[in-house]
Structures are given as C-alpha cells and as structure tokens.
User: Which sequence fits this backbone?
C-alpha cells in the first residue's frame, strides 16, 4: 500500500509541475499559429492616412499586397473587386496595399481598371517587410482581435468565416 501511495504522490507532484508547462506550451503554439498583425500607417491615393489599428475591434481586415506589373495580381484584383460588397456585408474591410511603386503609376493603373477598393501606398516597402512578404499577390486575413488567421497567395474565400471566430 505504501508503494502505491508513494507512486500516486509522485505522479501527483509531477503533474503539478508539468501541467503549467503544458498549458504554457499550448498558449505559445496558439500565439505562433495566430500571430498579431503588425500595425501600420499608410497613405491612400487621396493622401489620407490609414491606420490598421483603427479597424480592429470593429471589423476584420483583408490586406491584399500587390503591384501593377504582376499578372497574377491583376486577376486577384478582379476577384477581390467582385467579392468586396459581400465582404463589407460581413464586416470585412479590404485594404489593397501596393508594394513599392510610385503614387502616379498606381493611380493611373487603378483608374484604368476601375478599382474601387481602398488602395494604400507602401512606396518604401516597410510594411511589406514587416509582414515578411515573399512575393505578390499575398493576402492576410486579420480577425477583429488583430490576429492573422490566414496568409496566402489566393483569395481566402473558404477561410473568411475564421475572421469572426476568434
């Protein structure tokens, strides 16, 4: 009986030390799985300052990084344009961030394709760097808490429900 009691006590004592470590490890995995989006300030084509943090808490945000010279970006911009009214109904704000190009070139391109999404200018590429952009097109879906719940090179239609979940 004493042997059984000692084993049970040992297991109990170990669990007291291991349980907090397991919970901490789980929180770390979740933090890595859903990192917090880097806040930023960028100008739109009208020269107005847009701050990502102003949307969080009220809306989910879909960031779309693109360039005028990228053929894949053009097709994604068309899909984004087609989906934008539905996204707004679901309280998902679309911010189309042009990466590394001059305002005049971007404005001309936007006018030519009749793009209605809000276009932001990341002329120096600092926001693209903060998001560790590897190429364009790239989407980041950010929930209301500011967590990145999706990043990828295609429109995240099947993942949009995750924007409100957390």
Assistant:
């Amino acid at each position: 009986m004493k042997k059984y009691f000692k084993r049970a006590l040992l297991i109990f004592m170990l669990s007291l030390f291991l349980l907090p470590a397991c919970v901490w490890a789980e929180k770390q995995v979740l933090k890595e799985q859903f990192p917090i989006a880097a806040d930023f300030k960028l100008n739109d084509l009208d020269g107005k300052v847009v701050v990502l943090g102003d949307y969080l808490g009220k809306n989910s945000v879909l960031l779309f990084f693109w360039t005028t010279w990228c053929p894949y970006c053009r097709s994604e911009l068309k899909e984004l344009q087609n989906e934008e009214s539905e996204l707004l109904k679901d309280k998902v704000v679309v911010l189309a961030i042009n990466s590394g190009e001059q305002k005049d070139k971007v404005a001309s391109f936007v006018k030519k394709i009749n793009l209605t999404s809000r276009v932001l200018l990341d002329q120096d590429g600092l926001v693209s760097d903060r998001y560790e952009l590897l190429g364009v097109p790239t989407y980041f879906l950010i929930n209301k808490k500011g967590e990145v719940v999706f990043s990828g090179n295609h429109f995240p239609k099947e993942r949009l429900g995750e924007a409100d979940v957390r």
In short: Strands lie at 41-44, 49-51, 60-66, 92-99, 118-122, 138-142, 148-152. Residues 69 and 101 are 10 Å apart (CA to CA).
